[in-house]
From TrEMBL:
Residues 150-266 form the FAD/NAD(P)-binding domain. Its cofactor is FAD. This is Oxidoreductase (Flavoprotein). Residues 2-109 form the Beta-lactamase hydrolase-like protein phosphatase-like domain. Keywords: FAD, Flavoprotein, Oxidoreductase, Quinone, Transit peptide. Gene3D superfamilies: FAD/NAD(P)-binding domain (3.50.50.60), Protein tyrosine phosphatase superfamily (3.90.190.10). GO terms for biological process: sulfide oxidation, using sulfide:quinone oxidoreductase. It comes from the Bacteria. GO terms for molecular function: FAD binding; hydrolase activity; quinone binding; sulfide:quinone oxidoreductase activity.
Amino acid sequence: MDTKAISANLSVAPQITAHDVDTARDHGFRAIICNRPDGEGMDQPNFEEIEARAHALGLEARYLPITQGKVTDADAKAFGDLLTELPGPVLAYCRSGTRSATLWSLSEAERLSVADILAATKSAGYDMAGVVRRIVNGGKTPTDRADAEYDVVIVGAGAAGISVASSLKSRKPGQTIAIIDPADIHYYQPGWTMVGGGIFGAPKTAKTLGSLIPQGVHWIKSAVAAFEPEKDVVVLDGCRVVKYKRLVVCPGLKLDWHKIDGLVETLGQNGVTSNYRYDLAPYTWELVSGLKSGRALFTQPPMPIKCAGAPQKALYLSGDHWHRTGVLDRIDIQFMNAGGVLFGVKDYVPALQGYMNRYKADLNYFHNLTAIDGAAKKAWFEVKEPDQEVRTVEAEFDMIHVVPPQAAPDFIRVSPLADAAGWVDVDQATLRHKTYENIWSLGDVMNAPNAKTAAAARVQAPIVAENLADDIEGKSPTALYDGYGSCPLTVERGKIVLAEFGYGGALLPSFPKWVIDGTKPTRAAWLLKEQILPPFYWKAMLRGKEWMVKPEKVSSS
């Protein structure tokens, strides 16, 4: 645990674990403040885990979650009140400690001089220079001048953001480009299904973000607080201001673990797991490989979700393992799907239904997980069948794979860029914003009706780069997106149904049928997923190699 003393009463730290609470007590801390919202990262423990351990050790614990980039005056006052109320010394933490240091800086602004605040935070390793104007000006954010200015600013350094940066850099090497993202690690999330199936090790799916930022692209390691599109401005955490000529928005999705009552308290234990979190995917395999009899539940929340086939993938690989090890007849597999169909594109349903039959899985449609009690091994589902009264059903389990509800990040949902549902509002063909002509969006956060998959981002990135290049040259966008998305459904170890489709469910296969018939399970598709796509992702897609996805120019005449 890396703690940094800021004052006699307060130290701050990056994300801690339940084990670190013991260390904190041993170091004399008497209270803990959590400033990081649960579910913000793929590998963080939830506050309830920290709180439970703190109370067991006689420490106070408080939850003051601060969304990245949204430290308000009220937050700072609440933080100051907690420091007065709680027994000291106090340990506060967030993802890196910066939010906690910022809260302290703002809460002390009326008592200490700016110089004293900056000296204290600098000695702890936190640079608060970007908050000076806010301390002096009562939290007001001037936008008449920028702290930095670039030709193109990209929000989000996931698969979409890095890919579009690389593709644009190759087209317009003279443009100044910046990527904004506070993360330290970049994850190959499509690999987590394979981790949960015992095929990959988790470390194979992670690399440091710094190693992936394209050469010549500036990395602003910060969180976005707000957008001011009328002024071509992005406001960062700490009230720094970045001005742009063109903006690309692709920060990914928010996983809303808290929307299911009781889930956060039991994740990673009591047989409750999810391949949607880096640190939990190995637990999925631990549960699957250890289960010899009992009931296994696999859930799917309402759409939209990242990779809609992922809930089924976990089921298929689990069922295949139990089939191969001879215990399938002793395991009751239940697929609890909030939707009303097995898969949204009907051409792939026969093959998938065949595997559901093979694994003797019961399909429970219109079942949405709403609550869970891990210790009691019980889950509750709201059932909304057509023309029927809504009812709640209870199901017992020995293991349960949970897919969390998903939404656009808060700073997107409340921004001028969002539609009524909270997604970035784009033209589905050009991916240009419908209102602001110098803004584009791609990846999971925009509102085009396509599958939210890494394969979709792979196709979208060169299209957005091409259209940006057109705009820079004063031309109308000429590259059009057909809604392509791909979902390699791992129906058994060694075979995949390679679903590839576009808008309206139109089949868009990348290979001739004699190579890969996507409607049938094939060994070739498995080799593609297991051996070809991971290195392709790291070494080609993220580096702007547009193999098989280079956009065709569409005539405007």
